Structure formats: structure tokens, C-alpha cells
Structure prediction request, 150 residues.
Amino acid sequence: MKSVFTLKYILHNGGWAALEVGNIEKTVTLNISFFHDSLKELARSAIELRTRGEKSVVFMDEPGEHKLILKKNGSGISYELRWYKDWDSWNLISEDNFETVLSGTTTLPKYINLVRENLISIWNEEGLEGYKKKWSKHDFPLSEYELLKG
Prediction:
């Protein structure tokens, strides 16, 4: 069976965004607060997975957070999307106290391309000023964008 993995980052106003993560079985939509620089961390994961075996990306909600755990195996990646009822990244809940909401596999090139496409789309729609106006607390991850857009 062919691996299906989708990833769509949607920027909203007022320091909020959404992320649609999906596979052949289901799609999950996450709310993302500006309390964490999730887009930058997502971009870093695509860059660093080229040379590292494991990365995670935090998507804070208010309250709670999702964490995308990525493990590389050759040119493949296994992923697990975890939901924490509070902020694990701020040590407000045990790291072991989560629910797995989505898991599967994809390829490293597919993951990198999806992250790249999301960055390009946000850059084309918002630019630096538009992104900062909507996201407020963090700047657009320009250096990561430059490394991935090639």
C-alpha cells in the first residue's frame, strides 16, 4: 500500500494557526498558539532530519499541546502525533501522559517537500510583515525557509 501523508499549516489572525495532519485513515486538525514558535520548529525538523535520527515538533494549544514525533529509518520516517492535556514542553504534565491521535510512515523527501511547500505558501501569501502581524510573537523562519526553498 502506498504511503499517504499530508501536512497543511494555516495561519490565522491574533497569534493562532492550524495544522492539518493526515494519512490514508484520517486527518487531524490542531489549533496552534503563538506561545511556541511551531512553524520554525517544523522547518528545523525538515532540515535536521537529513542528518539526525529523531526530531519532535511542539504545537501548543490553550490548554494542551500536540507533539509530532519523527523517527528516521533510512529514507523513511515513522511519525506519531501525541496529544497532551497540558503543556509537556513546559513540564506541566508527565511526558508519558499522552494519547496517540495519529501515526504512520512516510518518506523523508515527502516530509521535507511538504514542509517546504507550506513555508513557500505562507511566504507568498503573507511575506515578513504579514506573517509578523498575524503571528505577533515570532518572526517568519526566514533562514530555514532559505535553506529549504532551493
Observations:
- The chain has a mean pLDDT of 93.
- The chain has one domain: 5-149.
- Residues 108-135 form the longest helix (28 residues).
